[in-house]
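Deliverable D5.2: sample structural annotation.
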Amino acid sequence: MSEVLTTSIMLLCLEDHKNNPDIIGCWTANKTPDGVRKMLANPSAKMFVALRDDRIAAVGSTLGNEIGLNYVHPAYRFVGASKALLEAMENELRERGITIATLTSTATAHRFYLAAGWEDAGPPEASFMTLGYPMHKALQRL
């Protein structure tokens, strides 16, 4: 999980971090194996993985009404792993009675979320010395 998170950030989020080692370091600081173990131990958070070819292709998480993580390994980009992961996380939120979900998108993923029915919830905000795009989505009952 740690490898997917850090590799995705380093290789796919260039638009966001522009290869700045300070930004990358800050962004990946809690994505180490120990950091992931802490995420898994948090009873308020739920971690998700998408598997492809018996490998972890994408990693995500929910916390409260928020999607906190949704990262795909570069080898599995554009094969539906992130989309399937997002749908699973949205469904988990629905099952808990959440009607409005939130997230903060990277510039890299912003178009992906818009295509998945998410809407901007305000102007971009500074995050990790880059911009984060606050978004929300009304979750309809299945």
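Annotation notes: Residues 68 and 113 are 13 Å apart (CA to CA). The chain has one domain: 2-138.
The annotation will be released with the project's public dataset once the embargo ends.
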